[in-house]
Design brief:
binds adenosine-5'-[phenylalaninyl-phosphate]; three-stranded antiparallel beta sheet; alpha+beta; about 350 residues; single chain; BirA Bifunctional Protein, domain 2
């Protein structure tokens, strides 16, 4: 069994190294972690392994699984960087005699630029990036996070549901994720403390758009689990994050706020960079702008993720990227960011 595991480990590490495209990487991921994938098939044989051997093979299995997932995620990051790089270098030219305009160079969207800066910042602190699906189960997005059906918190996070009646799926409850917190249970299950993992991406909510809300927006989330992790870490990380990205004069404020999957929970506000706390249009006259929700991970969530809450504690933290971009560049209405208005986007 140990030999089989090591063969899978070597085989997939080599294949990951040789992979050239994201599509190939996805295929590799499914061949390894999918239903009836190589790890799944191997774990089915555990029942025939003698108890003594299983004591050794079990932890090795988890360790190799984690190592392979990290190496695939790292490779995904490398390929993405190469794609961005090649797009940046790519020259898309329409001959100026046809357009009658001067040549203009494109660039990454301000939100993408911002995301790259944030990821680099947290890589310095030892955080590893992972992904979670934008279409997910009701269980991962809500139930596992202490938000069962009919819980009042669901009103805050209404979303778009997918009609699955015509598909043969294991679950009939699929939705567009409302937050990157759907990654939490995956991060906890797939890693062993100390855990420092970050994830980012698109989220969706069924809500009226206004200057500070969109139905489609981006979040950045971190999960940090270790012995003796406390709210002090949360305060420190918030200050470090805001000051590094928005400027040294920015302050972070933690304010009690209810999220069912953390205890205690907080809203994380940044002092307004424009009015220096006096109150202006961007911060709606309050001097502060809510950028994130956060808190100490609820013991029930840790337990469901296979982590003993008596030994470990953790913080989780989800920030709205467009809100932060607003504050950084003094944008009064975040809808401009998705407007496709080249005159506006050309400013960044
Ligand atoms: C959440 O989404 C929680 N998942 C955050 C969290 C993570 C709490 C981990 C505890 C632990 P909330 O709904 O407050 O919380 O959203 C977090 C941030 O996302 C907000 O502060 C805001 O910056 C951004 N955000 C939320 N809704 C929108 C929207 N409709 N448009 C743009 N940004 C939004």
């Amino acid at each position: 069994m140990e030999e089989k595991l090591k063969k899978i480990q070597q085989d997939f590490l080599n294949k990951t190294k040789d992979t050239k495209t994201l599509a190939q990487l996805d295929e590799l991921f499914i061949a390894l972690f999918g239903k009836n994938g190589q790890l799944d098939e191997l774990s089915k044989q555990f029942k025939d392994v003698p108890k003594d051997e299983l004591k050794k093979v079990g932890p090795l299995f988890n360790q190799i699984k984690q190592q392979l997932e990290i190496s695939i995620n790292e490779k995904r990051g490398t390929i993405r960087k190469q794609i961005y790089q090649s797009l940046q270098n790519e020259k898309f030219e329409i001959p100026s005699e046809r357009t009658g305009r001067k040549e203009k160079k494109g660039h990454l969207h301000p939100v993408t630029q911002f995301e790259e800066d944030i990821v680099k910042l947290f890589e310095k602190l030892g955080f590893v990036q992972t992904d979670a699906p934008q279409i997910d189960t009701d269980y991962n997005n809500f139930e596992v996070l202490n938000i069962p059906e009919n819980h009042p918190a669901r009103d805050l996070w209404d979303t778009f549901y997918i009609d699955t009646t015509n598909y043969k799926l294991q679950t009939n409850k699929l939705l567009l994720r409302t937050h990157t917190s759907n990654a939490q249970i995956r991060i906890l299950k797939n890693n062993k403390p100390p855990i420092r993992v970050m994830t980012l991406g698109r989220c969706f909510r069924y809500e009226n758009a206004d200057a500070r809300h969109e139905h489609t927006f981006e979040q950045f989330e971190i999960v940090y689990v270790d012995k003796d992790v406390s709210m002090t870490h949360l305060q420190y990380l918030s200050e470090y994050f805001f000051k590094s990205i928005l400027g040294k004069g920015i302050q972070a404020r933690l304010r009690p706020k209810y999220y069912p999957f953390v205890e205690p929970g907080v809203g994380v506000d940044a002092s307004c960079a424009f009015c220096k706390g006096k109150g202006c249009k961007v911060c709606a006259g309050t001097g502060w702008l809510e950028l994130a929700g956060a808190g100490m991970i609820h013991p029930g969530v840790l337990t469901r993720g296979g982590i003993d809450p008596d030994q470990y504690s953790g913080i989780a933290w989800g920030v709205g990227i467009e809100r932060m971009t607003m504050l950084k560049y003094g944008i009064e209405d975040l809808r401009s960011l998705k407007s496709g208005d080249l005159k506006f986007l050309g400013r960044f």
